[in-house]
Amino acid sequence: MIDAIVFMGIQGSGKGTQAKLLAVKTGYQHINIGDLLRKEGTKDTDLGKQVKSTIQLGDLVPDKIIFALIQDAVSDDCSGIIFDGFPRNLSQAEYLVQNFRVMRVYYLDLEESVAIDRIKGRRVCSQCGTNYHLTNEPPKKDSVCDLCGGVLITRSDDSPKAVEKRVQAFFEETFVLKDFFEKRGVLIVLPAERSIAEIQKQILSDLHLD
Q: Would the N or C end of the chain have less CB density within 10 A of its end CB?
């Protein structure tokens, strides 16, 4: 089984940022479920259209589609995986522990009001898909991508209505996974209001990588 490290937390808690940093440090493959879904949603297929419509509404994509995307995404030479935004419900958590060796689950704890404020600052390049944040990771030039010069836009799934539905789904389906992983002795809760560097330092210390 492949080793796996998981980042959990409400939207806007910084899962993606910490996952990317840890992937660089460990050499593990970073799998961001949101990115996989958005990529699938750009395809002119029945599945692509279904996925695009679902995420724009802020609804959760069926588990069987999530599992298939993960299976396709895992590299043949993968030494470990860092999951970002997965699992999101109990069925997905069961799939995770049955198919991967879960080494650690980091739960980034953040109040809902702070999370929503953070989401409002997220932007993505309309051409290359690079992510930015107006406060935490701003572009060098306002509304312009540093890498390709594309226009920065708000993601369709960051619309107020979609965010509201995702936050509701988080508390109804994902929050309970804290207990699921705590009972397995792999959960670490980190205060997500701390700086990116402070949180990263805690994670590296926990994994003995500092």
A: N
Top pLDDT among 151 and 43 is at 151
Q: Is 38 known to be catalytic?
A: no
Catalytic residue selected from 52, 88, 104, 118: 88
* 8-state DSSP, 185: T
DSSP string computed for 16-63: HHHHHHHHHHH-PEEEEHHHHHHHHHTSSSHHHHHHHHHHHTTPPPPH
Catalytic status, residue 123? no
SS (H, E, C) 72-111: HHCCCCCCCEEEECCCCCHHHHHHHHHHEEEEEEEEEECC
Catalytic residue flag (residue 155): yes
- Can you tell me which residue has the tokens 């700086």? 195
Whether the bond into 191 is cis, omega within 30 of 0: no
Tokens of 18: 């910490």
Nearest CA to 6 among 207, 197, 209?
Answer: 207
pLDDT in tens, 112-170: 888 888 888 889 999 998 888 888 889 999 999 999 999 999 887 777 777 777 777 77
Instruction: Quickly list DSSP for 129-146.
Output: --EEETTTB--SBTTB-T
Told to judge if 194 belongs to the known catalytic residues of this protein, a careful annotator would answer no
